[in-house]
Amino acid sequence: MKESEVLRLIEQRMKIDTLNDMQQQVVGVASSSKTDIILYSPTGSGKTLAFSIPLLKSLKDSKEEKLQAVIIVPSRELALQIYEILRVLAVGHKVTCCYGGHNVEDERLSLVVTPSIIVSTPGRLLDHCNRGNIDITNVAMLVLDEFDKSLELGFEDEMKKLVKRMPNLSRRILTSATMIDEMPDYLRLKKDFITLNYLVGQQSPKLKSWLVVSDEKDKLESLRRLLLSLPEGKTIVFANYRDAVERIQSFLVSNHIAAGGYHGALDQQSREMALAMFHNGTYPVLVTTDLGSRGLDVNNVKNIIHYHQPVSEESFIHRNGRTARQQATGDVYILVGPEESIQDYVTYNDEWHIPATLSRQCIEATMATLYIMAGKKEKISKGDIVGFIAKNTQVDAKAIGIIDVRDHYSLVAVPRANINETLDILQKAKIKGKRYRISLVKSLF
User: Fold this and answer.
1) What own/partner pairs with CB < 8 Å and gap ≥ 24 does 243-248 have?
2) What is the helix (H) or strand (E) element at residue 244, kind and residue range?
3) Phi/psi of residue 347, each to 5°?
4) Strand bridging mode 438-440 / 95-98
5) Does 376 lie in the same domain as 347?
6) What pLDDT shows up at residue 65?
7) Cβ atoms within 10 Å of 60's Cβ, excluding its own
8) Higher pLDDT pick, 173 / 313
């Protein structure tokens, strides 16, 4: 693909008319040199677009039916995020996404016709290679996105085996939001590789951080009051343990704060649904472990709250990177108990004092999420769903929110007003001549 064509698609389909400085430099270096690139840049700075442009430029005619590029990422969520971007931009080329928790047979069938690009977690890609479902021998471009996190999560053995199976690599692009002391030899980086470092200063000037001191050691009530004192906007609450996430989420819901929960013990579908419902506004608040600190690309997150202080500086950086993304601003709140010491790497600009009188007593969602047991594999599209709802109910098509169509199910955000009446009507109606089970998604815990 030509660079001009890629940039045109970015402008038309992603509504981005100007690349930021980092993206422009990556594209410029990739165009003027054939060497490998290591990119250090904060979360939310647009690394996916930065490496996607040279990747798409490198693609040859899709009629060759050869796998040309592989993107390896540490998490399912990041794999899906990158896949959705490339699926829009890689016109004329097939993109396949593979990750643990996804149906292996569906993935195998999607690999029968060889894609041009695969986005995958390390273990799942190696599994497909071992099964003979895909051949990565002739891959020319390898992207290791959030490479530091893959090392941290113990994927080094899988990545070593995968790189060994790619002897014909002509370019490697590695990205990371934290510095890596030494690059492993098995990557076989070219001696003249170029390092681009955009981590200077770390905290974005668009981000302001606050220390919030709780009067009680058990900080739940302070968290509730803090949430109610903040301006309206999407908020992520970080905790260090799965059981703490469930405890916090349950407390908030029982106190009339619409909150979802997200952690690694949830099955893949529940995780996808939790993120979708935060993204579409059903959950104004999301409580999560550090699983939500990477690969979570949700627009307009206004507030980050550290209910527990992060265990490392890297975790602090990645948590905060969920807000103040691209050109937006954001706020970070570190909630500490009366005798809790502040970690050296936890920095803040000022203190935030929760007012004695709160302007509101609850946080309600304006949207609700419908679950339709039909998706891509049943030939259901977003357009089909919009037409189905607008035709059968009083809900205006423009009022329908974000629609997520997965392989075998779909999630649809609709106005919460009169939701029971809307649901009752839709359960009796048909989509494309067939009736599917439709339900209202409630708490996943």
Assistant:
1) 244/307, 244/308, 245/287, 245/288, 245/289, 246/445, 247/220, 248/220, 248/223, 248/287, 248/307
2) helix 242-254
3) -110, 155
4) unpaired
5) no
6) 74
7) 12
8) 173
Task: Tell whether 178 and 89 lie within a shared domain.
Answer: yes
Confirm if 76 and 274 have CB atoms less than 8 A apart: no
User: No. of H helices and E strands in the chain?
Assistant: 14, 18
CATH of the domain at 371: 3.30.70.330
User: Does a structural domain hold residue 445?
Assistant: no
- Looking at residue 293, what DSSP letter applies? G
* pLDDT tens track for 133-161: 999 999 999 999 999 889 888 999 999 99
Do residue 30 and residue 159 come from a single domain? yes
Residue of 366, 386, 398, 399 whose CA lies nearest to 426: 386
Element (H, E) at 305: strand 301-306
In a shared domain, residues 276 and 379: no
Q: 38 with 89, same domain?
A: yes
Q: Residue 57 belongs to what domain range?
A: 3-197
How far apart, in whole angstroms, are the C-alpha atoms of residue 17 and residue 289? 35
Global model pTM greater than 0.90: no
User: In the predicted model, is pLDDT for residue 406 greater than 60?
Assistant: yes
The reported pLDDT for the residue numbered 205 is 61
Q: Are residues 219 and 339 in the same domain?
A: yes
**Measured on CA atoms in the order 225, 231, 233, 236, is the torsion positive or negative?**
negative
Count CB-CB contacts under 10 A for residue 23: 23
